[in-house]
Amino acid sequence: MTTTGGQSVKAKQPLPARIAARAGGGLMRVFLILVAVFWLMPTVGLLLSSLRTSTDIASSGWWKVFTSPSEVTFDNYSNLLKNEAITDSLLSTIMITVPSTVLVVVIGALAGYAFAWMDFPGRDWWFLVVVGLLVVPVQVALIPVSKLFGSVGLFETTAGVVLFHVAFGLPFAIFLLRNFFAEIPKELLEAARLDGAGEIRLFTRVVMPLGGPAIASLGIFQFLWVWNDMLIALIFADSANPPITVELQRQVRQFGNNIDILAPGAFISMVIPLIVFFAFQKQFVSGVMAGGVK
Length: 294
Hints:
- The protein is mainly α.
- The protein contains 15 helices and two strands.
- A hairpin with a 2-residue loop joins strand 1 and strand 2 (7-9).
- The two termini are 32 Å apart.
């Protein structure tokens, strides 16, 4: 607001601000709904394709299901359950993902608490080392870790893949949880210590419950990263029993027209991480926003 000759003149808003003001409300909601529908279209297409026979898929697009609902069949999923290669790869993926996620969360929480609230020699320098490891690309370690795993008998084993994921997931886990734990009021911890709580009890009874949102966010990040990984699995996993990402890629190369198996397998591989994400969506948002408002 400016004053000219005793009269008030309203300052002219910039063009982006005027556009944002006019685009708010119902118009913006409609736009966001359209974006969401467009974004989910490949998922819907994959789901409908997995419910059609290979002949129907080859003859027409997945959208024909809306005009010919009789094409829908669950035979592909029953055949998928009889495909030992796919079922074994799903089990292998679970055996890799679950330990990799649990170990990263547990070790990262312990280390994050130590860096935030425990005094030990070189604490700040060690934390700088952890921060530096965040920028180390996975590709740099592939050859040396392959040689190391080969010498100790961990190459092409589930344990080797889990160790690799844990090693590269810990720097981010420690960094995230340390920063979150450091925001816990010091008076709360001191009050617990005055009540006779030791470090272990303090960690399990005070820090862990307060750090639930950050821990849930970390678990979701780690789970999605490990479940969707193909590079590490392609190099270090057992070639006779690979994870689902490698098995689907292998079947695409060997049986390019085996769409009645590939479509439901790909959809199951994609929908499980989505279920995990939406199940912990509230905790995930709380963890991402943690520390944003003091």
